[in-house]
Amino acid sequence: MNICIIDDDKIYQFLLKKTIHIIRESISVHSYYNGEEALRDFQKIDSICDIIFLDLNMPKMDGLEFMEAYQQLSKSITVTPKIYVATSSISEKDRLEVASYGMVKGYLVKPITLEMVQEILK
Amino acid sequence: MGTKSNFPTSWLTIRPKIIGVAVFLATLLLFSLIIYQEYSLSKDDEKQKETEVLAVIEQNIEQSLKNSYMAALTIALTIDDEGKPHNFEQIAGTILSKNPTIGSVQLVPNGIISYVYPYKSNQKALELDILKDSYSKEEANEAIMDRNMRFAGPIKLKQGGEVVVGRLPIFIQNKFWGFSVVIMDMKDFLANAGIDQFTEMGFKFKWSKHKTNSSQETFFYGETNSYDVKQASKVYIKDGNWSIYIYSTNKEHLLLSLLPLLIVALLISILIGFFTCNFLQQPLRLQRELEAQAVQLFNSEQKFETIFNLAPIGIVHVSAENFKFITANEYFLNKLGLSLEELKKITFDAVWREPEDLTKLLERGGRVETDFIHTKEDDTSLRVKITWLKNKNKPNYIFTVDDITERYKTQSDLAELKSRMEMAAQIAQLGYWEWNADTNEILWTDAMYEICKVSKDTKLTAEFVFSRIHPSDVGRYIECSKLLLNGKDCKPYEIRILAPDGTYIYVLGHFESEKNSEGRLAKIKGTLIDISGEKRIKEELNQSYDMVLNQNQRLINFSYIVSHNLRSHASNIQSLAHLLFEMDHTQEQKEMFNMLDSVSKALDETLFDLNDVINIQNNVQISIENILVKNYIERVLKSLQIEIFQKNAQIHINVPAETKINFNPAYFESILFNFMSNSLKYCHPERSPIIHLDYLVLKDRFVLQIKDNGIGIDLEKNGDKLFGMYKTFSKNADSKGLGLFISKSQMEALGGEITVESELGKGSIFNLCFN
């Protein structure tokens, strides 16, 4: 199983990775600091993620922009990953905006707890 | 009046026309008789004249015949005894010259015409035997028989003309010798008789010849049909066997000549009849006029009485001696509320509030305005205007009393109103101005000069007013003036007026046009109020508002960034603490990590709440729906059912099932949840909570009232902090203090309001007032 974390917060990346590994050591976790970086990697290695934890507020390419770009890209990809938006924003506006993307499987408000990850990995 | 008190007069007056006609007929009859008399006399007169004329004519004819006889005798004397005439020619000539009527003479011995004179004209007759000739023999023989001269004729001559022939039989020694014949021209004969002369005088003649021994009468002179001979006078002349008739034609004209008289008589009769009739009608007419006048008089009296009583002014008749009422009209009685009987018991001066005014009025004359006492309604006053006059012949006065109470009151009110308005204008510093369209004059009140800061002796002209207006506002001013001049309305507007110190004064002007009775523009008028102060305040306010708006925006951005960024860190700390807590530690470390966990959790919650607050206040477009209140109450109760059960709470809901409000559903649920959970949370430790939910309408607003028997709030101490952020008043461990603040914000965001009544230890009432 492959999980991607796209977030500019290094501590968050570390904590989430740690949490995932607490649940299952075998899961490989890739971390990117922004959408652009992730997208570039996706194109290059043609790797397929099962789950993406996506932050909204990021430099260069934020979460929403990433999803726009990924929609274009994913046309050539047969298996689509489950995208979970994980943000510290509790703004209703952001939540509504995200909901309009069909590929988003969940909207998570940080902090991401062990229980939340367990639920997703089930 | 009008009864038949005097029969003959009445009878005459009743039938004047019949009597007129009778008089006319009688007069006419009288005149007719007179005229007839006149006529008879004239007729007799004419008859007389006829007889006289006839006598003259008879005489003339007798004379002619006598002359003829004498002539015939003279001729006969020329015959000697042997029967031979001597000097016939000479004697005949002498006779003819003496008797012009005699045309010729003949001697006819033995009936044969043997001698004629004048010979020439008569020689044809010679040798004619008259005794044998048919037309003469009869008469000739008669003459012989009579032995007297006979006249024959008229005889038509062969040579023309008519003649009368006189034949004198001559006997010598008693033996017939022959005839001496005298022949007269008929014309001459008639002329000699005077017939021509009398014909000219209007007499008409007829002449006839009777045949001997027969009644046969042959007319030979005169117009045959001109008159009936029976009506004529007549004379018979035996010598010629003639009858002469005379008829005066004047008789025919007699009636005609009387005609004018007859007409005059008729006219006079008509006149007399008419005058009689007219004269007799006179009393009747007089009587009728009298009756008409009586009716008129009666009407006038009635009219006067009506006018007196219905006059819209009081009229009283008062004795001059003691001011006792003689009479008063209804108006006066009504005004004083008295009957005439009651009035007669009092005197005129008694109704005067100031009786000395009456004395003054009578001394001074003219009119007076004073107060009357309304006796029935105690002390009520009537304001009246009184005029009076003295009755010329009698010792009394007539007063007119006009009730001017209303007018007086109106005038007073008007004066009051005016002073109030002036005062209001003074207080409001309201300037009033008007422009007269006819005279082009401009009028300003004192306040106007003060507002415009010009001295009061400034001459006001259109140019001056124009020069005072800020150039940017001139266009507006002209536009408004045009509208007003065309009789349209102009909305109030603000303009700037140049003050003498060069600054501008902001004024608000109201404008109006006034039309005269013909609908033409008479005036433009308006008010002006100095709003410089308000203007300044408004500008400052606007600036403050902009500043606050700006600050608010910045604050929101700031708080958003803060909450977001802080949350990131907070959530990381929380996660870290959580992970650390899971690791192996000493007991002390474990406790500390546990504390760190709860601190980070509290921080996160705080930031969460802060975000909520920002969201509510920032979100200007909240959807509003028509929601059924009951549904939300049920939902809230459901989510609170554990607490209700645990605390054994009683919930009394008194909200009609169909009640609906316009509100945001999420907010409504949140607010309701907040208050309900608060009521449960802050319940009194010694009693089970009882919560009442009531629907009320207060001041046209829908109010949801939540009443509990909880611990209550000391409003005096904490009232101002009740809805503040993070204020808690209880020692309750759960209270964070943000709930009421959020609810209040949500209510206010949608125009609602929350009021609170509470008493410490007894309970609280929260009123959610919805718009």
Structural write-up:
The complex is a heterodimer of chains A (122) and B (771). With 122 residues, chain A is of the alpha/beta class. Chain A has one domain: Response regulator (Rossmann fold). Chain A is built from five helices and five strands, in the order βαβαβαβαβα. Chain A has helices at residues 10-23, 35-45, 63-73, 92-99, 114-121, and strands spanning 2-6, 28-32, 51-54, 82-87, 104-109. In chain A, α4 links the parallel β4 and β5 (104-109). The longest helix of chain A is centred in the first third of the chain and has 14 residues, at 10-23. Chain A is globular, with a radius of gyration of 13 Å. The mean pLDDT of chain A is 84. Chain B has 771 residues and is of the alpha+beta class. In chain B, strands 2-1-5-4-3 form a five-stranded antiparallel β-sheet, with helices on both faces. A five-stranded antiparallel β-sheet of chain B has the order 11-10-14-13-12, sandwiched between helices. Chain B has a five-stranded antiparallel β-sheet with strand order 16-15-19-18-17, sandwiched between helices. Chain B starts with 6 loop residues before the first helix and ends with a strand. The interface between A and B is medium-sized, with 19 and 19 residues.
